[in-house]
Amino acid sequence: MNHFDLKGAFNALQKQMSLKLTANRQLVSHAPTMGDVTEESWRLWLQEYLPKRYCVSKAFVVDHNGYMSDQIDLVIHDRQYSPFVWTVNGADHIPAESVYAVFEVKQNLDKAMLEYAANKIKTVRLLNRTNAPVYHADGCITDPREPFNIIGGILTLDSTWSDPFGEPFIKAVDALEPRSHIDIGCVLDKGGFNIYYNADSGHTREISTPEEALIYFFLRLLSRLQRLGTVPAIDIEQYARALDSI
C-alpha cells in the first residue's frame, strides 16, 4: 500500500502557523493591531480546517432576554441550524443557543491572561439558552435536549511562565469557578492542553509536546465538538417576544 506521512503533514501545519504568528509579532509593533492580526490568523486557520457545519467569528453572544456577553475573540457557532446572526455597527451578535465554543486569543499565557479569558468565557455561559422540540419530515418529534456546557479556551503564541503548565498554571486553573473553567487551549510554542473537571477531585489535564501543540489542540477540540453533537433547537417564540406585535 502507498504510505502517507500523517505525522509529517500535521507537523507541517504546526510550523506554518507558528511562523505566521511569530512573523506577525515581529513585524507589527502596534499592540492593538498585532492582536487583531493574531486573532484573524487563528480564526482563518480554524475556519479552514473545521468541518463546514461550524462557523468561526469574532462576536458578542446574546440571549432572548436581551443580555449580551463581552466581545469574544473567537466564537465557534452553528452554521447550519442557526436562523440568524445580527451585524450591528460592524460587530456580529450571535444567539447563545448556536454557540459551541468560545476562545480568547492573546500573545502570551500568564495568570492575568488566564483569568481574563476565564472571565470573558463566563459572560457567555451566564446567558440563558432556550431549547425547543425538533420536528422531523416524517412527523416525529424529538424532545428538547438540555443545553450542553459551552467549551471555553485560550490560544496564545508563548507563555511568560518558565514552566508553562507547571504549578502556577495548575493553581490558576484550580482557582477558577465552574462557569469560568478553561477547558482547552494552545500555547503554540510550548504545548497544547486539555482539561477535565471533577467536582470532587479537582481537574485532570493532558499536555502535548511543543512540537505537536497545534495539531494536538485541534484534534482534542474536534473530539470535544463531536461529543457535543448538534446545538439545541432555538425556541423562536422566545426571541419573537421582543417585537411589539407579538
Keywords:
246 residues; 35% helix; alpha/beta; DUF6602; DUF6602 domain-containing protein; two-stranded antiparallel ribbon
What's the helix and strand layout?
Blueprint: H1 6-27, H2 31-49, E1 54-62, E2 72-78, E3 86-88, E4 91-95, E5 99-109, H3 111-125, E6 134-135, E7 141-142, E8 151-159, H4 167-174, E9 184-187, E10 191-198, E11 202-207, H5 213-228, H6 236-240
Parallel strand pairs: 1-4, 5-8, 8-9
Antiparallel strand pairs: 1-2, 2-5, 3-4, 6-7, 9-10, 10-11
Helix pairs in contact: 1-2
Organism: Hymenobacter defluvii
Domain DUF6602: 24-125
Protein name: DUF6602 domain-containing protein
Would you write up a description of this structure?
The chain contains six helices and eleven strands. It has helices at residues 6-27, 31-49, 111-125, 167-174, 213-228, 236-240, and strands at 54-62, 72-78, 86-88, 91-95, 99-109, 134-135, 141-142, 151-159, 184-187, 191-198, 202-207. A nine-stranded mixed beta sheet has the order 3-4-1-2-5-8-9-10-11, with helices on both faces. Strands 6-7 form a two-stranded antiparallel sheet. α1 (6-27) runs antiparallel to α2. It is globular, with a radius of gyration of 19 Å.
